[in-house]
Inverse folding.
């Protein structure tokens, strides 16, 4: 991700982040609360410990951004610094207090995380959706604000259409956004989840995943165009069950009393996978 293409960036939204600037205040850390719309949900505890150790020695070098909210201050930018400072036992933290709307708070938090490449694809998708749904921003407006193309934003938001099992794999960094986008093309839920697990187990690349998805789509289309001489619902049901179980095309010739089963495979690895599924 290119850090130079982030639109206005924090410097334009919050012009001064200088600890020596006269607007910097020392705020009681206990009076600061997290922003519940913060895009980033996961924080690496070991990295927080490292930052806390540094703060114990050098202090907090960059102020956090806050806004007044009743009797407390809400974090706008710098939650990682705030968490680390609390770990380090620091009682007061340098801060710049700004008057900001909910939309501006969300935008600044999103841009800060994008600049630091801190968000996983699902967090990024949720942040875009929130800015569009909660604050009425269009994809075009969002594109200009965060410095990403409209198609990039649209493709990222589409990840929210995936099954929760697959979203969790993306969040856990077991699947990339590229893998996830490829899986969106598969209509059958069970087949989609089955392929997602296979990607993790076999460490398939995005390119390999796209080829498998293309093959599945081609076979689906071919089957849809085929006109069986005689429609046998029992055979159709068995065929579909076998295809879901084996993740490949299966053809049954004959009837429920006598016939043969053809199972297609396209590589040695796939043959081994199918054999393992049958043996199990």
């Amino acid at each position: 991700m290119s850090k130079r293409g982030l639109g206005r960036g924090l410097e334009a939204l919050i012009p001064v982040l200088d600890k020596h600037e006269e607007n910097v205040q020392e705020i009681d850390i206990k009076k600061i609360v997290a922003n519940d719309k913060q895009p980033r949900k996961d924080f690496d505890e070991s990295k927080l410990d490292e930052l806390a150790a540094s703060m114990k020695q050098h202090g907090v070098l960059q102020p956090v951004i806050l806004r007044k909210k009743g009797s407390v201050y809400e974090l706008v930018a710098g939650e990682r610094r705030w968490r680390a400072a609390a770990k380090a036992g620091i009682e007061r933290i340098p801060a710049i207090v700004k008057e900001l709307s909910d939309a501006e708070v969300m935008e600044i938090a999103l841009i800060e995380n994008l600049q630091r490449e801190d968000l996983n694809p699902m967090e990024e998708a949720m942040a875009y959706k929130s800015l569009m749904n909660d604050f009425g921003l269009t994809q075009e407006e969002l594109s200009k604000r965060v410095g990403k193309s409209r198609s990039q934003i649209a493709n990222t938001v589409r990840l929210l259409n995936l099954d929760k099992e697959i979203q969790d794999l993306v969040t856990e960094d077991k699947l990339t956004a590229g893998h996830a986008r490829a899986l969106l093309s598969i209509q059958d839920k069970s087949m989609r989840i089955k392929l997602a697990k296979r990607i993790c187990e076999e460490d398939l690349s995005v390119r390999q995943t796209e080829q498998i998805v293309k093959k599945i789509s081609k076979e689906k289309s071919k089957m849809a165009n085929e006109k069986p001489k005689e429609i046998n619902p029992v055979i159709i049901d068995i065929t579909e069950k076998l295809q879901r179980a084996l993740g490949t095309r299966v053809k049954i010739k004959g009837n429920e009393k006598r016939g043969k089963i053809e199972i297609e495979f396209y590589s040695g690895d796939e043959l081994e996978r199918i054999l393992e599924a049958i043996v199990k």
About this structure: Residues 206-225 form the longest helix (20 residues). The chain has 13 helices and seven strands.
